[in-house]
Amino acid sequence: MLDRETCTVDLLRVLLLVEVANFGALRRYLGLARALTLAEELILRCTGALANSRGRALSDRLIAVEFEAAEFAAVQTAAEALQASMAEPLDLDGEHHLVRLRVGGAAGRNCDCEEVRLVEGAEKALSDARAQARDVFRDVAQGEPGIDPLELIHELPRAIRDGEIFLQYQPKVHVRRQQVASAEALVRWRHPARGLVLPGEFIEAAEQSQAIVELTLWTLDRVIRDQRMLAEAGYDIPVFINISGVLLADVAFVEAACRILAERDAKIGFEITETAVIRDPQCAIRHLQRFAEIGVEIAIDDYGAGLSSLAYLKQLPARELKIDKLFVTQLTSSNRDPLIVRSTIDLAHALDMEVTAEGVETPAAMALLGVMGCDMIQGYLISRPVEIDAFRLFLDEASHLKALNNQPFSFRRSDRLWKTG
Ligand code: C2E
Ligand code: CA
Ligand code: CA
């Protein structure tokens, strides 16, 4: 981090988080040991491209580059210089490899700018950069845009009408069959003033107003259309949508959703969070059974994040249990989580349910889950959530590879689709 004493008051402090976008593919070529040295090479290349900058590795695929600048525009200029410096391949033990970068940057004015805000700003920028597939920069000196959820909810009906709301799809892959088994639809908002807004910033507020009904019915309609399109292309897989718990007790919503589903023939699933069901169990169970009777597949989402027992959840007409990503992302670094995951898988199987692990980010986690008997995996390792056209391409590629060589699914995909957003 920048040294406070050396910080000049009028200058901006700049932090760039620089991530290797094609790290997964590179690691397959380089092997684990050499992939670990990539960050060191990257630091040399990046600090060489930016005068008076300092770099350090944050992980095998992520480095931080820091410097001072006179104006905010310097952040973008610096990122462009880094991208340009990667036009030449990196020389790793005599082999040349092209490295693709994703940059999230933040800048704050003078030493009063709290370090934590700078780091948080850069992290948020990197997260947006991944989602938008372009470099993103945030001026933390300007203060946060301060998203007011209630204001957003006010705008939601207009946003739906104006086409600002859109869906991304993330595959769930069956481990033993090496096939894409289904997909999850995730809602996003391309806001004209605020940029990309993720559901974490507006779903909760939408749940406290009628907006969630309109949003979910819109999503259902759009997902049915996309599922039919995929089916016509030869991929008749179920597509799951997230249903807020409040809607399970809303008779008008249940009637409207059943009507839409009855009118059109599509394979649709609902993901229900375990805590949602508990609020009004009898009513929720009744409605879920109605959905199940008309062919909707039911999955229990975020299992482990709440307090319910599997025996209780067995009363629901669910055939799939999704282990919360909190347990999965720490699977290979914690002593406790593998035990929880293992016993959840065994219990779910005893109750005749299939288990999906979400948040699978590393080959190590995938391998461990396979050994534990996990049925399906979902996560950035396989694919980030992507829009329908990219999802269709992903399915084309996955089925080609399976037909060609029956190799382990996630390691044989082309660079083009590897963990792109
Ligand atoms: P969720 O249902 O648990 O969805 C999974 C979240 O994990 C998604 O975040 C997804 O992008 C993210 N994710 C996927 N793979 C990985 C991974 O490998 N690592 C990590 N760290 N994260 C991963 P997202 O899209 O921001 O959605 C957040 C939550 O918003 C969802 O959590 C869901 O509860 C809610 N949501 C999304 N779309 C809708 C919707 O249409 N209706 C309702 N009611 N809720 C929705
Ligand atoms: Ca979900
Ligand atoms: Ca989940």
Brief descriptors of the model:
single chain; 421 residues; alpha/beta; Alpha-Beta Plaits; TIM Barrel; 2 domains; 43% helix; disordered N terminus; binds ligand C2E; binds calcium ion
Explain how this protein is built.
This protein is α/β, with parallel strands linked by helices and 421 residues long. Helix content is 43%, strand content 23%. It has helices spanning 23-30, 32-35, 38-49, 73-85, 115-132, 149-161, 203-207, 211-232, 245-248, 251-263, 274-278, 281-293, 310-313, 325-329, 336-350, 363-372, 388-405, and strands spanning 12-20, 54-57, 62-69, 90-92, 95-97, 101-109, 136-139, 165-174, 179-191, 195-197, 239-243, 268-273, 297-303, 320-323, 354-358, 376-378. The chain has an eight-stranded mixed beta barrel with strand order 8-9-11-12-13-14-15-16, surrounded by five helices. It has a five-stranded mixed sheet with strand order 2-3-1-6-7. A hairpin with a 3-residue loop joins strand 9 (179-191) and strand 10. The chain is globular. Bound molecules: ligand C2E and calcium ion (2 copies). Residues 170, 186-187, 198-200, 203, 216, 219, 241-242, 244, 271, 301-302, 325, 329, 358-361, 379-380, 385 line the site of ligand C2E.
Number of alpha- plus pi-helical segments: 17
Distance between the termini: 29 Å
The CATH level-2 architecture of the largest domain is identified as: Alpha-Beta Barrel
**Which regions contain 5 or more consecutive residues with pLDDT less than 50?**
1-8, 410-421
Overall mean confidence score, pLDDT: 86
Q: How would you characterize the largest beta sheet?
A: 8 strands, mixed, barrel
Distinct small-molecule ligands in the complex: ligand C2E, calcium ion
Computed over alpha carbons, the radius of gyration is 23 Å
Which strand order do you get reading across the main beta sheet? 8-9-11-12-13-14-15-16
Number of strands: 16
What structural category do the secondary elements indicate? alpha/beta
Domain count: 2
CATH class of the largest domain: Alpha Beta
Helix content range = 40-55%
CATH topology of the largest domain: TIM Barrel
